[in-house]
Amino acid sequence: MNKRITVCFALVLLALFPLSLPAQDVPVREGYDADGKAITALLPFDGEEEMAAAFNEAVAQAVADLGKYNCRIVTAETVEAAGVRIPTDMPPVRELVPGVRYALTGGVYPGNREGEYYLQLWLWDMADSTMIYTDDLVLEYQDMEETLESLPGLVEWLFSHIIEKPAEAESETEKKWDDKIINLGFRSGVSRHWYTAPKETAPGAQSLNYEGGVFIALRFNSLISLQAEADFVWDDLVYRGITNVSTPPAYTPVLVNKKYRSFSLIFPVLLKLNFRPGNFRIAPYGGVFAFVPLGETLYRSKPGEDKDSFSWSADAIPLGFSAGFEAAAKLGPGMILADIRYSGDFSGITIHGAEITSHDASKISYKRGMLSFTIGYALGFINVKK
What is the number of other CB atoms lying within 10 angstroms of the CB of residue 2? Predict the structure, then answer.
């Protein structure tokens, strides 16, 4: 019973006085304080010492009153200890104002008439040491109080020229895919080829070959691009079978290996859909290709090491189709690519004057199916700023 009372009492205490969990550290952006305010360095003003000190103090208060900035005053002693000179019309050296987002410099200078002065202020973006804006305020020495009253308006006017992105927007900007209008590149890899004769229901031969080429891609918008390629492809059509060799007193079965090697250039034209999750791009695509034979088909037969060459061509139009998927990621000045695609001929290909066995007609016909795996690299040109 006592245990139950103790447990209930403990639960009541937890409900009334919950345990304080340690707060997680929130990452602070460089140039900002823990409250998210942009740290702004205010350097000593140049000019007449008494007036410069008065305006320096008033500007510090005006910056703080804006509510979005943490004003960090850099004293004259700090500047002297650093041993640097502060030209008011130049951004301060970073060693003097480390870890700040913005900086204010200024000076009080005599005007054209006696008793006339003007206050000149410069606002600097210390992320890249560039000037955001500069302006001045004309004042009369006798009307210092009135001038100090109008000073907050000048400070607010200067800071209104800051275009500041929130932390989330900066993060999205870093992740944004920087895809150029034109991309030039190359790809290289391997390709599995299947060869199917007109009377075959399944491929009667296959080979693993090299494939590679160059391409140019033209981006129409963030989603659609058109890519044209010039790829080098070779085919190894190999037939293996048993042939009877006439040797007295009977026929002797012999395993014959016949290889037909052909080279061609393929010119795909592909329509791509580009999706960009973060720093990656994925692009399904499809299109057609045309091909051009390069030279004759090279023939080699074993045993016997017979060699020959034959002409070859498409039975109809030398066209085919391609469909695949490309993944890309930023690497250095360009992007690295990985590509997988399947391609096939629309019409058959004929090797003229060739035969598989002595009983075949004097030609070989087949269609190709090609599954390719390649990697590549591309460089972009012509960027359009949004």
Answer: 6
**Hey, what amino acid is at 273?**
L
Place of tokens 């606002």: 123
CA distances from 284 to 42, 257, 351, 352, 373 (A): 54, 39, 34, 37, 14
Q: Look at residues 329, 253, 263, 325 and name the one whose alpha carbon lies nearest to residue 298.
A: 263
105 within 8 A of 130, measured Cβ to Cβ: no
How far apart are alpha carbons 43 and 91 in whole angstroms?
11
Taking the whole predicted model, whether its pTM rises above 0.70 is answered as no
Amino acid identity for residue 148 in this structure: L
| Euclidean distance between CA atoms 155 and 58, whole angstroms | 10
Name the helix (H) or strand (E) containing 105.
strand 102-110
Closest CA to 102 of 121, 78, 130, 80: 130
Strand partners, 218: 182, 226
Asked if 95 and 54 count as a contact pair (C-beta separation under 8 A), the reply is: no
**Structure tokens that stand for 36 in this block:** 């998210």
pLDDT in 10s for each residue of the chain, 386 residues: 455 555 455 544 444 444 444 444 445 678 888 888 899 988 888 877 777 788 888 888 889 898 889 998 888 888 877 777 767 778 888 888 888 999 998 888 887 777 777 788 899 998 888 899 988 887 766 667 777 777 888 889 989 988 866 655 544 544 455 668 999 999 999 999 999 988 888 888 899 999 999 999 999 988 999 999 999 999 999 887 655 555 555 566 667 788 999 999 999 999 999 998 877 899 999 999 999 999 999 998 876 677 889 999 998 899 999 999 999 999 888 999 999 999 999 999 999 886 654 444 467 889 999 999 999 999 998 876 54
**Cβ(66)–Cβ(159) below 8 Å:** yes
**φ and ψ of 217, to 5 deg:** -120, 135
- 332 phi-psi bin (left φ>0, alpha ψ -120 to 50, beta other): left
